């Protein structure tokens, strides 16, 4: 039931996100979308500082029966302290970041507007982690819908009726959406805990929070710092390859602002279940039940690949329609067709990361992600200036194969899970191939009768 609630809500939220991106792309263009993505890639560092590990720590501790009032307050205090530091750094450094990294003075005010939302994001991450551990998905889901609704509504109203530039209107809408989310979550959390009570206080909570959140914070910050460097290097490399400043931002905006959101859209069908695997695996591990862990991992692998291969078939057949309908971009359609085979590996990698977190292997995941990010930055710096956007697409494939291979290998080793090639890989791949030809036939049939 929880997986169903999260899945349906994720689909609706991602669809709203795609629709909103298509609307703003029509207003600010591909180059504006590129700048929008660059600003958010820098802002992601601030989000990392105040959220990485704290939501996971809350989920893990509550699932283990240690979610006392002291645990919640300590998580919130740490998250708020770090979010305040991140807010100050981002606010003070907005000029330097915009001129030397993003290379656009238009990014200064949007960055400062986004920074104001960091404390609210930190609190939301902790409180949502609490409810996810209790398998109560309705409360966080309603908060996500409320936040998304406020964000979209305020952004569109400001773009239409305020003197603010479009980018500043979008960032103001995002920040006010975060404020609306916390105004919903705090009263609901207080009411819920008064009604149902909380776990008894237990010692060592702060040490456990640091043990879980510390490696996640350090690793995520390094990885997202490298991801931000990667996002900055891509348009710079495209300019060196011969594209003008606006054209380089446009190409970057097509890949990161259009193609990748479409490719990751079906992940909403499995990411919900993957998120719920964290408390399930943590609880099974705490009770020393390896059979339950193996069973969950096996189901996750099989059904994710069984979904991923047909999803890739849909992208291959309908890439033109998806790129045109959402963004009116033929280039987006062409690139989507090229990267469509990545879908099964992307989806299973996401699920495996969640399984490893539930097994207290978040440090290993971060090491692999960090190595992956270092590799991507190095390859982008060397290859994109010489070969342009084609090199970046090749790097995407190499990166995903590298990351997924090591993560899957670690999971199989820890759980002693035996892989059935025929059931896990061959059968889903055959289903994907059949789906491709059936969809292609139906598309031609519809075109013939039309």
Overview of the structural elements:
The protein is mainly alpha-helical. It has one domain. Helices cover 87% and strands 0% of the residues. It is built from 17 helices and no strands. Helix 1 (2-51) crosses helix 5, helix 10 (245-264) crosses helix 13 and helix 12 (290-327) runs parallel beside helix 17. It is globular and about 60 Å long.
Write the topology of this structure.
Layout (H helix, E strand, L loop, with lengths): L1 H50 L2 H10 L5 H24 L1 H9 L5 H8 L2 H16 L4 H24 L4 H31 L8 H36 L4 H20 L3 H19 L3 H38 L2 H10 L3 H16 L3 H26 L1 H27 L5 H29 L1
Helix pairs in contact: 1-3, 1-5, 1-6, 1-7, 1-9, 1-10, 1-11, 2-3, 2-6, 2-9, 2-11, 3-5, 3-6, 4-5, 5-8, 6-8, 7-8, 9-10, 9-15, 10-12, 10-13, 11-12, 11-14, 12-13, 12-14, 12-17, 14-16, 15-16
How many helical stretches? 17
Low-confidence stretches: none
Q: Report the β-strand fraction as a percent range.
A: under 5%
Order of helices and strands: HHHHHHHHHHHHHHHHH
For the largest beta-sheet, the strand count, sense and barrel status come to: none
* Domain unit count: 1
Between the first and last Cα atoms, what is the distance in angstroms?
Answer: 41 Å
Computed structural class = mainly alpha
CA-atom Rg in angstroms: 22 Å
Average pLDDT number? 83
Helix content: over 70%
Number of strands: 0
Q: In one word, what is the shape?
A: globular
């Amino acid at each position: 039931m929880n997986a169903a609630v999260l899945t349906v809500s994720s689909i609706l939220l991602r669809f709203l996100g795609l629709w909103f991106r298509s609307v703003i792309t029509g207003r600010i263009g591909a180059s504006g979308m590129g700048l929008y993505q660059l600003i958010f890639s820098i802002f992601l560092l601030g989000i990392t500082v105040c959220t990485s590990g704290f939501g996971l720590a809350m989920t893990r501790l509550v699932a283990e029966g240690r979610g006392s009032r002291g645990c919640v307050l300590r998580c919130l205090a740490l998250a708020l302290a770090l979010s305040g530091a991140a807010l100050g750094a981002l606010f003070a450094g907005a000029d330097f970041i915009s001129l030397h990294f993003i290379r656009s003075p238009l990014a200064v005010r949007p960055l400062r507007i986004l920074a104001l939302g960091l404390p609210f994001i930190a609190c939301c991450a902790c409180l949502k982690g609490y409810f996810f551990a209790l398998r109560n998905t309705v409360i966080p889901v309603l908060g996500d819908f409320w936040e998304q609704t406020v964000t979209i509504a305020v952004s569109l109203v400001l773009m239409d009726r305020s003197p603010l530039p479009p980018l500043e209107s979008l960032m103001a809408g995002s920040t006010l959406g975060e404020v609306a989310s916390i105004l919903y979550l705090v009263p609901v959390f207080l009411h819920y805990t008064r009604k149902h009570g909380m776990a008894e206080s237990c010692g060592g909570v702060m040490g456990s929070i640091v043990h879980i959140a510390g490696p996640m914070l350090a690793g995520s910050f390094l990885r997202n710092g490298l991801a931000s460097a990667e996002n900055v290097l891509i348009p710079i490399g495209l300019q060196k390859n011969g594209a003008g400043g606006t054209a380089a931002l446009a190409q970057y905006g097509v890949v990161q602002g259009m193609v990748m959101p479409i490719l990751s859209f079906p992940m909403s069908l499995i990411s919900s279940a993957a998120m719920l695997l964290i408390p399930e695996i943590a609880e099974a591990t705490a009770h020393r039940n390896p059979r339950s862990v193996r069973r969950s991992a096996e189901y996750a692998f099989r059904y994710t690949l069984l979904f991923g291969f047909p999803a890739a078939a849909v992208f291959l057949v309908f890439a033109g329609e998806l790129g045109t309908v959402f963004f009116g971009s033929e280039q987006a359609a062409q690139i989507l067709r090229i990267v469509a085979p990545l879908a099964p590996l992307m989806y299973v990698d996401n699920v495996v990361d969640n399984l490893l977190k539930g097994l207290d292997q978040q440090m290993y995941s971060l090491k692999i992600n960090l190595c992956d990010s270092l590799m991507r930055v190095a390859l982008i710096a060397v290859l994109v200036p010489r070969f342009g956007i084609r090199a970046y697409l090749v790097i995407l494939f190499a990166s995903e194969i590298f990351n997924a291979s090591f993560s899957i290998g670690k999971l199989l080793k820890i759980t002693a899970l035996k892989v059935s090639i025929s059931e896990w890989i061959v059968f889903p791949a055959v289903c994907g191939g059949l789906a491709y030809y059936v969809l292609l036939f139906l598309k031609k049939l519809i075109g013939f009768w039309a």
